[in-house]
Amino acid sequence: MNKVNVPLFCILAYLPSWSIQIGVILAYGNLEDPRAVPWIIGVMFTPAVVTIGFALFSREARKRIKWRPRWVALPTAIVGVAVPTVIGFATIALLEITGWGHSDWFEFSTAGVAIAAGPWLLGLGRQGWFIFMVNVFVTGASFAVLNGLAAMGEELGWRGFLQGVLVENLGTTRGIVLLGLIWSFWHLPALLAGYNYPAHPVLGALVLFPAQLIAASFFLAWLTIRSGSFWPAAIAHGAVNSIEEGVTHNISVAVPHLYEDVTRVVLTILFGLVFWWLLQRNRGRETAPETGISVCR
């Protein structure tokens, strides 16, 4: 195999993912059923399995996988936890400022924060701002690493392998936009069944989620290129699935839930633009050696 056949990669990643998602929806009615959890975790590893399959048949493909952990990945991983955490709490702040909703977990004041619920490792109750921020960081980092173990199955394929191929052949912006679309539509059956956007599944599947994942892809691309490894992206993905999802899913809204969804997407896009700009400044970082690997056209 002299080339990385991107359409083949996508087909091999999509077929088991879509089949399992559709099967779970037909069997259990939705993906929220506790019996669906093992299947969902299995789906998350399909990009990694396809990547490993490509690596088994191609020495050049093996050379392209950014799997080695490096010391520089540690501070990058901290950024990977911080950004989803900020997006989560910024969503709460904007909803409370506009009067669109309020958090079920937190009561904010100038003196500190009263935590009513949630899996916070340093406890609940009233805390000063410093202790609260330490609590958020410790809890967020811990759950990001834990959830990153599952997200690793996706990120080994998306950021650790496919990103480099697409960027090399299409350029930074087009390559990462395409990767964001591939990543988004890999979730398509679940989204159309109402996962994430139960009131607006088509709008969510075809507009909101693609926009969010394209923006997130610039953030995750920066983490991967900066560290030379997919591990910070896996931890950041874990942070999105844990602390960002946790704090935003525990908001009582006084308006249609779409307001919250759009707020979160817009915040993600703003951060995505920041990391797109950073990637433009450091465009030469992921220039790969001549390997003979290209997109089959």
Distinctive features:
single chain, 297 residues, mainly alpha, three-stranded antiparallel beta sheet, two-stranded antiparallel ribbon, 69% helix, globular, disordered C terminus
User: What's the end-to-end separation, in Å?
Assistant: 15 Å
Give, in order, the helices and strands: HHHHHEEEEHHHHHEH
Number of helices: 11
Cα gyration radius (Å): 19 Å
Query: Mean of residue pLDDT?
Result: 91
User: Strand percentage, roughly?
Assistant: 5-15%
Strands ordered across the widest β-sheet: 2-3-4
Shape: globular
Q: Helix amount, in percent? A: 55-70%
| Tally of DSSP β-strands | 5
- Report the major sheet: 3 strands, antiparallel
Catalogue the unreliable spans.
285-297
Structural class: mainly alpha
Give an overview in words.
- The protein has helices at residues 6-28, 37-44, 46-57, 59-64, 73-98, 129-170, 172-185, 188-192, 201-227, 231-248, 257-281, and strands at residues 101-103, 106-108, 112-115, 125-128, 251-253.
- It is mainly alpha-helical and 297 residues long.
- It has a three-stranded antiparallel sheet with strand order 2-3-4. The protein has a two-stranded antiparallel sheet with strand order 1-5.
- The relative contact order is 0.17.
- Mean pLDDT is 91; it is low at 285-297.
Secondary structure layout:
Layout: H1 6-28, H2 37-44, H3 46-57, H4 59-64, H5 73-98, E1 101-103, E2 106-108, E3 112-115, E4 125-128, H6 129-170, H7 172-185, H8 188-192, H9 201-227, H10 231-248, E5 251-253, H11 257-281
Antiparallel strand pairs: 1-5, 2-3, 3-4
